[in-house]
Structures are given as C-alpha cells and as structure tokens.
Specification:
It is built from 7 helices and 6 strands. It is of the alpha+beta class. It has a 4-stranded antiparallel beta sheet with strand order 4-5-1-6, covered by helices on one side. Strands 2-3 form a two-stranded antiparallel ribbon. α2 runs antiparallel to α7 and α5 packs antiparallel against α6. It is elongated.
C-alpha cells in the first residue's frame, strides 16, 4: 500500500503583540494627557481668557440697513443699481481704507442690489451707535441727491422748454402749416402734369429707337449680302493681290456688322429700360404724388385738428412726467438691531476654548516627544 503524504494546511499568522501594542499606545496617550492635565487646563484657560478679554475690550459695532428707491426721471431710473453701487463705493472707498487705521463713528459698509430689480439698492451702515449710523445714512442720501441734482434740474428745464416749443408749434400750425399745405397741393398738381408730359416724351423716344434699330438691321442685311458676293468672287479669283483687297473689305464689312449689332443691343436695352423701368417709375411717381395730394387734403380736414389736440396732450404728459421726477427715496424705516453685530462674543469664546484645548494637547504630546527623543 502506498503511503499517503501528509496534507499541509496553511495557517494565517496573526501577530499576537499587535493588539497589545495598540492597547499600550492608547494607554500611553491617556497617561500623557493625564500627566499634563494641569498644563492643558491652564493653557486652555489662558487662550479662552485672552479671547474673552479681546471680546470685551473690542469696540462694539452697530449696523442699520435701509432700502433706497433709486431716483427717477419720468418713472425711469436715473442710474442702474450696479452703477449707483460703483458710484457710492468710489466716494466712500477712502472711509473703508481709513477704518483699519482709525475707526470712524460710522461708515458705509456695504451696498447690495436685490435680484431681478432695477429700482432698489440696500445700504448697510456700520458705526459706534445707531445714532451715528442714522446720521451717516442721511449723509449718503444727500450724496445721492447732490450727485444727480444737476441731471434732474436739467431735465426739468428741458421739459419746460419743450412745453414752450409745443405751444409755439400749435401757433405755427394755425398760421403757417395750413397755408403751406394748400400751396403744396397746387405744386404737386403741377408736378403731375409735368410727369404726364414726360411719359409722352419717352413714348416718342421709344418710337425713335425702333426706327434706328430698323435702319441698322437694314444696313446689316446689306453688308451681309456684300460679304456673300465678295466671298463668291474671291473663291473664283486666283489673283493674290485682289484676294487680299477683298479679304480686307470683308473684314471691314464684318466690323461694321459687329458695330451695328452692338448698337442694336444698346438701343434694345435702352428701349427695354424705358418700357420696363422708366415709364413705370414715372407712373409710380404720379401715383405717389396723387396720394400726397389726397393725404394733404385729408390733413386739412382731419389730421391738423387731431395734431393740435395731440400737442395739447403732450403738454399734459410732460407735466405728469415732471411730477414723476424725483431724487432717491428711503423705503420705510431703516432696519436696526438690538445688539451689536460685531464682535460675536459667544462664537469667539467657544472657538477660542476649542482651539486652546486642541493646541494644548498637541503641545503636551510634542513636549513628551522631545523628552523621549533626548532620553534615546
């Protein structure tokens, strides 16, 4: 009998000391923390105390917010919200730069534009108190008013001049326009008569062109006959000098035929242009002139009175536009807060406590690491 070979069963090697080392490391960490617990407590307290000291010594900043309706001219914004924001930012940029050196009583801290709106902006004012903030808000509003005062005054003056011009137009229509329309009607009627005479002239010109074409065709036919005769004579003639003369004559006659053909083409184009363009254009001109006469007669009966009425309505609209022209307005009362927005005391102290605690643990392990390194 054959002997069976012993089977080798693989056994995974599990380090026994690994779990023990992890347990020992965790114990060492806890021992290190307990060893330096006084240092950790003191260090965390100092950091938290310094943060609290900073919070209570820091000057509190109050904030107010106000929604501003952009100034309008005839119910249209004088300036876009984005451009107004840039305008105010450029003016109060110096204050924002100075606040890092010396805190002003109040300063313009932010300008926001509401989404999907071209009429409003929101202004934020930060300062040492709400009273300072309100004074600064008034200053900002005055700045907006002063910045666009000239534009509004110019618009009002322009509209006053427009009213005077409209009144002058009404008088001009009555005293000048109506007599001129009658004179214009007579002028247009005379012009129509001239156009009719011009049509007769072009019709006669078409006849003259047709006669010229007929004459040129007759000449072409004669030259063709002469060429045929010369070709026959040249074929029966053996005299070289005579053949050269005949060939030159044939070439001359062919050139004449080509010239006459080109003339016929030009005359045909001229005739077709007169028939297809010139005369129809004159008829169109006559039709347009007649329409003008009809419109002028209509103006005398209907349009002129309506025009005067429209001008009077324009004066009414201009006066309404002047009423709808104003500088920036504050919408409602400013939004004020009961507490300062800066510094955020609770948040700063909590963050300082967490940061100090974590940093103290790190320092404790670092000190322990240095000691161990020196011992080794």
């Amino acid at each position: 009998m054959e002997k069976k070979e012993p089977q080798i069963i693989p056994v995974q090697y599990i380090p026994v000391n690994q779990c023990e080392e992890d347990e020992i490391d965790l114990k060492e960490l806890i021992k290190t923390i307990l060893k330096y617990k006084k240092f950790i407590i003191i260090f965390t307290f100092i950091v938290t105390f310094l943060a609290g000291l900073y919070v209570f010594l820091k000057t509190p900043i109050w904030e107010i917010q106000s929604s501003i309706l952009i100034g309008q001219i005839n119910s249209k914004p004088i300036i876009s919200p984005e451009n107004l924001r840039e305008y105010l930012s450029s003016i109060y940029k110096v204050e924002l730069e100075k606040k890092f050196k010396k805190m002003p009583n109040a300063y313009l801290s932010g300008i926001t534009v509401p989404k999907k709106s071209n009429l409003f902006i929101t202004i934020k004012i930060n300062g040492l108190s709400n009273n300072y903030d309100l004074k600064k808000l008034t200053e900002v509003l005055n700045t907006i008013h002063n910045g666009f005062r000239d534009k509004i005054e110019k618009y009002k003056l322009q509209k006053q001049n427009e009213i005077q011009n409209i009144q002058f137009q009404i008088q001009k229509i009555k005293n000048v326009t109506v007599p001129n329309i009658k004179t214009q009607i007579n002028f247009l009627e005379n012009k129509i008569n001239l156009k009719n005479n011009l049509i007769n002239y072009y019709k006669n010109q078409i006849k003259a062109i047709a006669q010229k074409i007929k004459f040129l065709n007759e000449n072409i036919n004669q030259y063709k006959k002469l060429i045929d005769q010369l070709i026959k004579y040249n074929n029966n003639n053996n005299n070289i000098s005579s053949n050269l003369i005949i060939s030159n004559k044939i070439i001359s006659y062919q050139n004449m035929i080509t010239d006459y053909t080109n003339q016929i083409k030009d005359l045909s184009l001229q005739k077709n242009k007169i028939i297809s363009q010139t005369i129809p254009n004159i008829y169109d001109d006559i039709k347009n002139l007649q329409n003008k006469i009809d419109n002028l007669n209509k103006s005398l009966k209907f349009d002129i009175p309506q025009q005067i009425e429209n001008l009077k309505n324009q004066i009414v609209q201009i006066n309404l536009a002047l009423k709808n022209t104003f500088a920036a307005k504050e919408i409602g009362k400013p939004l004020m807060f009961d507490h300062p927005i800066k510094p955020k005391k609770k948040l700063i102290i909590i963050l300082a406590f967490i940061t100090g605690f974590i940093l103290s643990i790190f320092l404790a392990f670092f000190i322990e690491f240095i000691k161990g390194f020196k011992e080794e």
